[in-house]
Amino acid sequence: MGAKILVIEDGADSWQLLSSILRAHQYQPLWAADGVQALSEARKHQPDAILLDLGLPGGDGFLILQRLKSNQLLQAIPVIIVTARDREMAEHKARRYGAAAFLPKPVKADTLIAAIRGVLGQHTGESSPHDSMAWVAMRKNQRIEGSMPIRYSGTMIAGEGTITDLSLSGSRIAGNVPVLAGMVLTLQLFVPGDPEPVLIDRATVQWAKESAFGVDFGALPPKTAARIAQAISTLITMQRDSSRQK
Predict the structure, then answer these.
(1) How many Å from the N-terminal Cα to the C-terminal Cα in the chain?
(2) What is the largest CA-CA distance in the chain?
């Protein structure tokens, strides 16, 4: 089976429907019927994505979403809300609490799979981790020019700035605190529309000139690489939409 998807849903019929859709597309469904099980199963299995109903026994879905996003071990897992609640009332709050996508019930199979592929960075019809990482590798040398906020810190320094050029292998940064070539930095990338920054534990400064410097990310963990690849796609889409409006 492919990526693990935790379905947090108390209705047996809904679980059967969602799990059958997931299995048909080679995903591995896991089930939690309430808030307590949800956090336990998420910690135990570290799923690649979570489908979350908002109306649950033992804890409102928004509370579960908050707990997932406040847990350092779980906060990077994308959460897709799948609910019968009024979209106008619930979607804004869900997004504010960190949901990656919002789907109203009854959900269509193609809509659900498209949302999952979107949050996992799988823009093709393939759904296995191997194929997902092949797409990430394909993005390795693709760069996006733009402006994205960043915080950086190292030995005895801490600064803020903007990324002006980004790829999976590294980036060009304009900062307000000078750095030197050879320094190792920790970076926080703030992606538009994503409430959680992308954390890069180790980025080596390759060159520095005045306020600008370039870093190499080195060997990234798969989930971090996938989030950066998704950030590149997001920025490409934003630039494309901006160009159309001009």
Answers:
(1) 45
(2) 61
Q: How many CB atoms lie within 10 A of CB 147?
A: 10
Alpha carbons 108 and 114: distance in angstroms, whole number = 10
Amino acid in the structure at residue 12: A
Range of weakest confidence among 48-57, 139-148, 159-168, 223-232:
139-148
Query: Residue 144 has what pLDDT?
Result: 61
pLDDT tens for 74-129 read 888 999 999 888 777 788 888 888 888 899 888 888 889 988 988 887 644 444 44
Task: Collapse the DSSP code of 183 into the 3-class scheme (helix H, G, I; strand E, B; otherwise coil) and give the result.
Answer: coil
Strand, coil or helix: 245: helix
pLDDT at 231 over 80: no
Decide if 182 contacts 154 (C-beta within 8 A): no
Contact 189, 150 (CB under 8 A): yes
Mention every residue, 6+ apart, whose C-beta is less than 8 A from residue 155: 183, 184
**164: part of which helix (H) or strand (E)?**
strand 157-167
List the one residue out of 148, 151, 169 whose CA is nearest residue 159: 151
